[in-house]
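Q: Start with the shorter request: fold the first protein.
A: Done. Sequence, then structure:
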Amino acid sequence: MIRRISVPPFEALDPLLPQRAGSDPATRETVAGILDDVRLRGDDAVREYTRRFDRVDLAPSEWELDSAGWQGALDRVDPRLRAALMRAVDRVREYHLHQREEGFHLAGDDGSVVGMKVTPLDRVGLYVPGGKASYPSSVVMNAVPALVAGVKEIVAVVPPQGVTDLVLAACALSGVTRIFRIGGAQAVAALAFGTATVPRVDKIVGPGNRWVAEAKRQVVGQVGIDMIAGPTEVLIIADGGASPVRIAADMIAQAE
């Protein structure tokens, strides 16, 4: 059924558009408690919340994935998928190379010098969401810009229940240096404050659920973040010559 709406007045669209809203009080309070607890108790708190929310009990010594194991995912994935990932990484790298700032300095006639120095961050944290699907594209889009910028260490956190070889292969191709099996607000807290096992980062990027989004919002100032991720909105423009398969793939990719 198609509903027809006449505009102007454009206010007629208001009931049909998403309403802007912040996080609910319960979410804010719960996340604040998790952040404070991780800041105070470190690894013990992260383990407790992982056991409670993810129903996975891993000792801190089990959080970090062996580098050889996840780098080996490149050999385990289908060669066609590996080639597609490599192409995606190359295209994202090429785009972000044009954004890289080299800095400059200007010398005045009076001997004064002004300028801008651009220094890459030492370490960034990449939140890799889990849930019902895996998103190697999120890894590529968030890790490659850091790699291009010259960030020395890219630390990824992945669902403690496990992660697909495709996501691990994306990590390997995108410049990720370390991977930890922790998720949720407790993972954001561990990256923001640092624990005995998880290194503190300078910036946290990557999408997540409302708990993750709220945790990122609350640690702003302690660390940098990319943005508070929200629903994805996609507009597909196609004519009669477009491939129905590709159009359907674009729609399915966002049908979360």
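Q: Next, the second protein, separately.
A: Sequence, then structure:
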Amino acid sequence: MLLIIIMGYTELMAQQDTLIMVSGEILLGEIKFFDNGIVTIETSYSDSDFKVDGVEVEQISTSNQFVILTAQGNRYHGTLASDKENPSVVLINDTEKGITREQFEDILFLKEVDPTFWSRVDFLVSIGYTLTKANNNQQFSGNLETGYVSSKFKSDLSIGVIRTFQEDDEYTSKTSRTTGGLGFLFFIVKDWFAVARTDLLQSSEQQLNLRAITKGGVGNYVLKTTRMNLGLAAGAAWNYENYSDVTATGRNSAEAFVALEYNIFNLGDLDLLTKAIAYPSLTESKRFRTDFSFNLKYEFKRDFFINLGLSVNYDNQPAEGSSPFDYVLATTFGWEL
């Protein structure tokens, strides 16, 4: 009877992903991903996923396929398991390269990649609403983000909407701001990548019916740890603008761009993301634009979160009668898949 139990337990472990903690506790289930220093695993004996600090994991073994990223910029697609004789080393069975040995502490990112499309998709939605009695001021904000990741590239699609209504004695004033973006990041070698992206902006503050920026370039993750990432990219862009002022004509210009992205994570349940992009014009004399965003996210149970976000756009040569600055400070409540 004991032999049957042992054999059944061994078979169960072989069919599932396994985490052995420093404390000796064993978690059996399906590892969803390891990112920002946190391992997320789904088990059959819990209503919600377990989220454990990566430093508390002593050994790991997976039966499912993963995209794997190391601190040295190496990328793999396959299964992994800790070396039984030396748990500080993991054996990665890459689908193309075969068996490779890596230090466990150098593993920065894991994401399960089943053959199905939907298993590789991320999804995030958040909304916010503010009502002020004075002048019946109302503001609505909403954000939707989705992404897809594979062993060769990742993509993302985002839409953000802000609408403000304010009643005066004689009329109701309205302001609006809409953003959208579609981007692709292709992994080249080590920490180098190529990027192709289109971003859209509509802003009543800057009299923009549409600003469409299409850009392409190369970048590098100059810093990657279990606590933070720092990425830099540069390239060229084409900027198209159409204004709500009927007297203003559309503008087309070529621009260079330099981008910085800084992400601090694993601060308990906090995640801080900062992005800054500078656009010096190549065809309009002395024109210079910048986009800046800051997001502080606090995650609590069942993948719900609260986000505080700041977005700033600056143009030193805006349309006549428009403000050079447009900024938004918003707090939203959301859910992430």
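Q: Describe the second briefly.
A: Residues 200 and 212 are 5 Å apart (CA to CA). Confidence is low (pLDDT under 50) at residues 1-14.
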